[in-house]
Amino acid sequence: MNLSHRIRHLTGSSSDGWEVFYRARRMIDAGHAITELTIGEHDTRTDPSILAVMEASARAGHTGYAMVPGIDLLRDTVAARIQLRTGVPTTRDNVIITPGGQAGLFAAHTAVCDPGDTGLYLDPYYATYPGTIRGAGAVAKRIETRAEDAFQPRASDIDAAAHGAVSLLINTPSNPTGVVYSPETLSAIADVCQHRDLWLISDEVYDTQVWEGEHLSPRALPNMVERTLVVGSMSKSHAMTGSRCGWIVAPESVIEHLITLATHTTYGVPGFIQDAANFALSAGQSLEDKIAEPFRRRRALAVEVLAAQQTVSLIPAQGAMYLMLDIRATGLSGESFANALLDTHAIAVMPGESFGAAAAGHIRVAMTIADEKFVASLQKLCDFASQLAESR
User: Fold this and answer.
1) CB of 89 closer than 8 Å to CB of 83
2) pLDDT digit string (tens) for 363-382?
3) How many CB atoms lie within 10 A of CB 193?
4) Which of 336, 48, 320 is nearest to 205 (CA)?
5) What is the 3-state secondary structure of 87-120?
6) Which residues pair with residue 347 across a beta bridge?
7) Which residue range(s) make up the domain with 292?
8) Residues 6+ away with beta carbon under 8 Å from 252
């Protein structure tokens, strides 16, 4: 007996590039003191006020089956939030609540891709993207962006890859690059989507973490509302990663079918989690700013550290909780550098190659430890890179 081809080939024919991360975790389990700058997990946990609402809701009995599309109150709150931020009329009928953004990405691709269809995604990419597309039964096709463009995608590259494709997945602000797509970039993407008749799946889970410029949802661009599915989440905006609560905003006809899909797969999100999410969103900008502030502060500290040396270059860190650093001056690949840094200084970072070929020769640093320790670790990283470059 064999498992399905789909489940056996989610990660394709090659490694997923996360060996450095797993090695660092094994070292920690063995008792070694490792500074982790790897995954996007907040160093401050969910705000106590959110947890208090979650507990009160659970104790009040909201622990049974919740409505599969999401409770109306939360759907209304998400719709109002999206309408306020984009100016696009949005109601609960445009919203389905999902078990986190990752489930939303899978559901969105399942909604628009038939088995064998081609789904496009941009490289560098969040690690699950190609596997998510394959999991939906589609063929994952990457479009490489360039470091010299600060990883802003070129419309000509998307257009060249789009023949026969049905969807395009984008992420702004971007994990792993920290880049916020410019209005010009998004307008060009929208033009290609309309010309090639593509569904656009827009991962906007970092929309509260913008350090330079402004976040623009492509759903707000002319003629895009009927072909755009926006994926959002409480994970990054409110430090609720383990609560698994997200959403998809899409045309009503898409949401109707996504509700059917959820009925046959996830069967919704626990009601006490939704009540807590509704409270968190209703708390307004001040709470979101509180969650984002450590990363804004550390990003400014990182800019100072990096400006004091000449070896490591920073891809413009315009948003999200990461830095994408160019370490090609060392002569090492991102993976080799990350392994050497771990062995020499017990600092764990993610190789750029973990996020696609376009990020080769780069590393991703998560800004997820206390300020003083973060600055010291980044300084060690830069000094180590300089030593390697000088010894070439």
Assistant:
1) yes
2) 999 999 999 999 999 999 99
3) 25
4) 320
5) CCCCCHHHEEEECHHHHHHHHHHHHHCCCCCEEE
6) 35
7) 5-45+286-390
8) 93, 94
Give CA 282 to chain center in angstroms: 23
83: tokens are: 């309408």
Query: What tens digit of pLDDT does each residue of 134-174 get?
Result: 999 999 999 999 999 999 999 999 999 999 999 999 999 99
Structure tokens at 163: 């023949």
Sheet of strand 165-171: strand arrangement: 95-98, 246-249, 228-233, 199-203, 165-171, 118-123, 139-144
Q: How far apart are CA 34 and CA 339, in angstroms?
A: 13
Q: Could you say which of 250, 265, 284 is where a domain stops?
A: 284
At 155, list the tokens.
């419309």
Cis check: omega of the bond before 173, within 30 degrees of 0 = yes
The CA distance from 278 to 76, in Å, is 9
Cα–Cα separations (whole angstroms), residue 206 to 2, 199, 235: 39, 21, 9
Indicate which CATH number applies to the domain containing 41.
Answer: 3.90.1150.10
Polymer length of the chain: 392
Q: For the beta carbon of residue 268, count every other beta carbon within 10 angstroms.
A: 22
Q: Which residues are CB-neighbours of 29 under 8 A, at least 6 positions away?
A: none
Q: Looking at the structure, tell me whether residues 81 and 142 fall in a common domain.
A: yes
Q: In the structure encoding, which two tokens stand for residue 289, read together?
A: 């700013």
Residue 233, SS3 per DSSP: strand
> What's the pTM value of the predicted model, to 2 decimals?
0.96
Q: How many helices (H) and strands (E) does the chain have?
A: 13, 12
Among 284, 316, 344, residue at a domain's last position: 284
Q: Which range is least confidently modeled, 17-26, 287-296, 322-331?
A: 17-26
**Beta bridge partner(s), residue 349:** 37
Which residue reads 């999100």 in tokens?
269
* Domain identity same for 270 and 144: yes
